[in-house]
Amino acid sequence: SDAPIRVCHSPLVSNLLPLSFRSSSQLSGSHGPGFAKLNRREGAGGWSPLSSDRYQWLEVDLGGRTQITAVSTQGRYGSSDWLTAYLLMFSDTGHNWKQHRQEDSIGAFPGNSNADSVVQHKLQHPVITRYVRLIPLDWNPNGRIGLRLETYGCPYNSDVVSLDGQSSLLYRLSPRPKQMTKESISLIFKTLKNSGTLLHAEGQSAHSLTLEFIVRHHHLFLLCRSSSPDSHHLVSLGSLLDDQHWHHVAVEHHSTHLNLTVDKSTLWGNVTFSCAEPVFVAMTFTGPQSFLWLPGVTELSSTATSVGLQFRTWNKAGLLLTFNLPKQGAVVWLYLSRARLHLQILKSGSALNDGQWHSVELISRQGHLTVSVDEGEGATAHASPPFLVTTGSQLFFGGCPAEGSSQDCMNPFKAFQGCMRLLTVDNQPVDLIMVQQRLMGNYSNLQIDMCGIIDRCSPSHCEHGGSCSQSWSTFHCNCSSTGYSGATCHSSIFEQSCEAYKHKGNMSGYYYIDVDGSGHIRPQLIYCDMTEDKTWMVIQHNNTDLTTVRPSPGKNQHMAHFEYTAEEKQLAAVIGQSEHCEQELTYHCRKSRLLNTPDGPLPSWWVGGPGAGQVQTYWGGAPPGSQQCSCGLQENCVDPKHYCNCDADRTEWANDSGLLTHKETLPVRSLVLGDVQRPGSESAYRVGPLRCHGDENVWNAAFFDKETSYLHFPTFHGELSADISFLFKTTSSSGIFLENLGIKDFIRIELSSSTEVLFSFDVGNGPLEVRVKAGSPLNDNRWHRIRAERNVKEASLRLDELPTATQEAPADGHIHLQLNSQLFIGGTASRQKGFRGCIRSLQLNGVTLDLEERAKITPGVQAGCPGHCSSYGSLCQNQGRCVERPNSFSCDCGPSAYTGAFCEREVSASFKSGTAVSYTIKEPVSNELNRSSSSSALPSSISSDMTLRAENVSLSFRTSQSPALLLYVGSYHREYLALLLNKHGEHLDPLTFVWFKVFTYLEIIIFFQIDKNNKEDFNLTSDVEFNAIRSLVLGRLDPELSQLASLGFTGCLSAVLFNSISPLKAALLHPVPSPVIVTGPLVQSICGSNSANPYAAETTHHLSVGRGQPLVNAIRSDSALIGGVIAVVIFVTVSALAIMARVLYRRKGTCQSQEVKTVKPEDSPELAFSSQTSSQNGPSENQKEYFI
C-alpha cells in the first residue's frame, strides 16, 4: 500500500525560547522580539522597534534546518501597531540572506489591516532554512511597527558533505539489475565558486556522466556531459549558481534522452559531515537613492593607498566608488560605463554586467595609480597622475546622499544597482555588520547581509527565439530576425494566410505565412496566387516537373519521394484551415498499366495524408479507395473494361490525370509505379504543387442582434502571454466584445464609447487599462480591427492602423493571469453591456474560435455576417464593382478594361500587321414607332442609346509604326471616328496617357487630356450628329469601311475602353459567345503600361482617362468632312514641324538597372516587364516628357 503523505504544516515559533529571537532594535523591554508570538499577550503584546523605518527587522532561529510552508502575521495586541506589507528573508547561517519571492517576482507580502486578525500566506514552494527574518515595508500610518508571527512546516533532515576544492567523495553503488529504462541522480548544493566538478559517475560499458560548472557567454551554467560508446550528450542550464544558496539538481537518463533539471528549470554508505562555509556579508544597492559612506584613511597613512571590493550587477553603468582629493581640489570616480570599468581616464575589463562576482582593487603607490579587475585576470590599467592620490576622509560606494545633505559628494554618473561584498580599505576588511548597526559610516536604501540579484532571463520570457538581455530592474527581448514583435516577441508580424494578405490590398507574390499566429509554428515563405477570384496558397516540392520513368536494373518498381518547402506542422495547419486543397496527379503511359491488370491489382500506389501518410489506391479525379481514375468515374475510358486509360495497355500514348481534392489524403508524399519494366513500356508522371484556397478563419463571423446575447467558450489560458485579435462592425456606441473572469483576475475588451476601445485586465496588481481613441466614430457599420496583447512586461492595444497604445506592467508584480470561468464573447455573464453587431476572425493566442458553429446553436446570435463592400469596396480598382458574398466579397471587372482579383491587370494584346479585332455593338430591340422617316433605311435596332453624346474612349499603346490607326468607331450612317498616330511621331518613348470626350450636337466639342495635364477643348463645326454607332475596330480595317484601312497597327494595345465596352477583353477572355470577330494572329500579352519594361524597344503610350502624370504633347489637326462623313482625326506627335503653342520639357526617373537586354514585345509577348521605377536616378535618353 502507498505510504501516508506527511502533512508539513506544524507551528514552529510558538514553543521557541526567547533567545531564539533577535531584532534590529526594541521600543522597550516589554516590546522585545521574544514577545512576537502569534496570539500571545505577554509583555506589550508583541514586538515594536525603537523607530519605525524600513531598516528594522525581526529574526527567528528555528534551531536547525527546517522546511517552511506558510507564514502568518498579526499586529501588536490591543494597539494601533501592525504591518501592512513586509519582506521575508531566509538563511542557513544567519548571514547572506535570500529574499523569498512568490511567482519568482513578487517580493512583498501583504500584511494586516488591524491588530488582532491573522493573515496567513502559503508559500508557493516550500523553503528549507534555519533562520527567518521579516523586514517591515509599510505599517499603519496612524501607528508604528508592531508584529506577532508564526511559521509553519516540519523538520528537515539530510546528510551534508563539505568539499574544499581539493577533496572528493567516492561512493560505490551496489549491483543493480541490468535492464533499467530510467536512471536518476539528484542532489542539493551551495557554492561560492563559479568553476569545478560537482559530480562524476562511471557506469558499465564505458558510460559516464559529469556535472561541472562553466562560464559561457558571461553566464554561469551547470554543464552535463553524458558519454557512451555510440553517443555524446551535452546540455547546460542554470543561473547565479554561485550565490551561496542551496540549488537542486536532478539528472534523469532514459534509454533515448537525457533530462537535466536545475532548481525549477528543466531542459531536455551513510556519511554525515557538517557544511562549513565562510561568512561573506554582501549588500544590495536597490535603487538610485542607494549609497554607502565609509570613513577613509587618515592623512598620516603611508604613501600607499588601496580600496578593494567585489560587485555583481546586470546594469552596464553605475558608480562604484568616489572620493575627494582635498589637496588637489579634485574628485576620483570609479564607475561602470558600457559594462567596462572606468577610473577617470582609465578603462579596463569588459562585459562586467554579466551577473557574476567581479573583484576590483584600486591601488595608489608612489605616484602610480593601478586598477585591477578580477585579480588581474580581467584587466589591469595603470596611470601616472602628476600628484599623489590618497582617499581622503570619506569614501562613497554606489552613489551619493540626497541633495541637501552636509556630506560633500557628487555623482555625474548613474547610481549603482547591484551587490557588493568584501570591501577593503588599505587591505583591512570593512565590517558591514557594524555598518548595519549604524556603528560605522552611514547608508541609505541598502539591503545589508544579502545579495538580492535576480536573473530575469532564466527562465527567459522571450518567445520564438528572441534573445534576452537584462538590467537590474527589468529585461529586454531582441526580436530582430524572429518574425515576431512585442515586448516578449509574442505576436507574429506576418499574416496567417494568403487570403489575409489579399484583403490588405496585396498582389500575387511570395509572402511569409504564419499559420498559427503567435503559436509555435515558424513563419514560412509561400507563394500566393491572387490572379483569380480565389486566393491560392501554393506550396512547392522538390519535383513538380513532368518526369520520365527510366527503368532501373534489378528493380520492378519506380519510387519517388516528395519533400515540401513547408515544415510538417505548417503543412498540416495550412490544409486544416483551408476551405479547399488540391494537387494535380498525372500519368502518361504507353504499354504501362497503372492500377489494374488482368491478374488483379497492380502494385502502383501513392502515399498521402498527415504525418507519414497512408497508402492510397486511387488516381486524380476519383474518390479515395476506388481504385479508379477520373475516366472510370466519368465512364469515358478508352477501354470500357478498365477504369483507367493506361490500364488498357495500348501501344498508343494515353494519360490519366486529375485533381486530388480530399484534404485527408493530402499532400502526396511518395509515388510507386509498378509496370515500368516490361519491353516497350514508357511512362512519365507529374505531381503538382499543393494548392489551397479559402481561409476558414478570416471570414468566421457571428452577428449579435441583442445586448443580452452572447457566445461562451472554455476558459482562456494565457497565464504569461495572451494576444487577442478580431474585427468588429456595429452601429452601437458601446458594448463588451470579450470577457473572462477569475476569482480576482479578469480580462476584458470593450467598446467604451463610439470613438474609444478599452482593454482592461487584472493579474493581482490591480486593474490595468489601455485605451485607444479613434478620430472618427467606430459605430459606422464598417469593419475595424482590434489587436490586444498582454505579457509579463506590458500590455498593448491597437485599433486599425492607429498607433499602438501601451502600458508597462509593474516591475516586480504578479505576472500570472489566472482565469477559471467561461470565456464570454459579445456579452457578459450578467447579460449587461452586451455588444450588438458583428465579430469576425476572433483569435486567441493564434487559435481561431469557431464563432459560426457556436452561433448555430445559440439563440440571439446568427452565424456569419454579410456586408463587406462598405469596408473593402475600395480594393476594387479601375471602376471594378464590389459584389457581396455570404463570406467575403469579389470585384466585378465587367465595366472596365481590366481583369484580376481587384481589376488591377490591364487586358493587353500583341498585334501583327494583319491583326484586326472588330466588336459589333449589340443591337437593342426598338419599337417600330421609334423610327424616324430619315432612318427608315437603317436597321430597326438603332436607337438614341447608340448616339455618341458624351462618351469616353481610352487606351494604351506601344508601337514603332508611324502612321498607325489606333482606334476606329463606325456608324450605320457611314460616319466614323478615328484615332491616328501621325507619321511625324518619330520619338514616342514615354507613356502617352490621353482622354478625350466627344459631345455631338450641332457643334462637336472634343475634350482632349493627357494624364493630369490641363484638359484641352476643340470645337469642330458641323450640322450632323455622330450617332447610330455600329462597331469598334482595332488593327487593320476592312477596305470597304474606310480609306484608312491601309494603315493597320503593329505593336501592343492595352486597356482599350469605349464607354463600358472592352473589345480586347471580349476577344481574349470571353470568346464564346462574343460579338467580337478576330482576324489574323492575336496574342494575349503583358505589354500594358502598368507592367511596362522601360528598356524594351517599344514603349507603351497610354491614352486614357487622365489620372497619371502628363507625359507627352498632343496636338489636333484639322477635321474634315469627307463625302458627308465626319472624321475626327487626332494626331499625336512630338515633331518640331507640328503646330504647337508651347513645348515644355521634363525628365522622369529611370528604372534601377541599366543592363536589361532589349527585347521586342512581338518577339517575347510573355516577357514580364518591370514596373518598378525610382525617381532618384538620372533620366535616360528615351524618357522625356513633353507638355502642350
Automatic annotation (TrEMBL):
GO cellular component: a single term: membrane
Keyword Membrane belongs to the record: yes
CDD domains: EGF_CA (cd00054), FA58C (cd00057), LamG (cd00110)
Presence of the UniProt keyword Signal in the record: yes
Domain Laminin G intervals: 281-451, 700-865
Species assigned in the record: Sander lucioperca
Domain called F5/8 type C: residue spans: 8-154
Annotated spans, Disordered: 1156-1188
Principal subcellular localization: membrane
InterPro entries with a match to the protein in the record: ConA-like_dom_sf, EGF, EGF-like_Ca-bd_dom, FA58C, Fibrinogen-like_C, Fibrinogen_a/b/g_C_dom, Galactose-bd-like_sf, Laminin_G
Domain EGF-like intervals: 453-490, 866-904
Protein's cellular compartments: Membrane
Keywords, in A-Z order: Disulfide bond, EGF-like domain, Membrane, Repeat, Signal, Transmembrane, Transmembrane helix
PANTHER family attached to this UniProt entry: CONTACTIN-ASSOCIATED PROTEIN-LIKE 4, PIKACHURIN-LIKE PROTEIN
Bilayer topology annotation: Single-pass type I membrane protein
Family annotation (Pfam families): EGF, F5_F8_type_C, Laminin_G_2
Domain spans labelled Fibrinogen C-terminal: 489-541
Similarity comment text for this entry: Belongs to the neurexin family.
Protein name: Contactin associated protein like 3
Transmembrane domains' residue ranges: 1120-1145
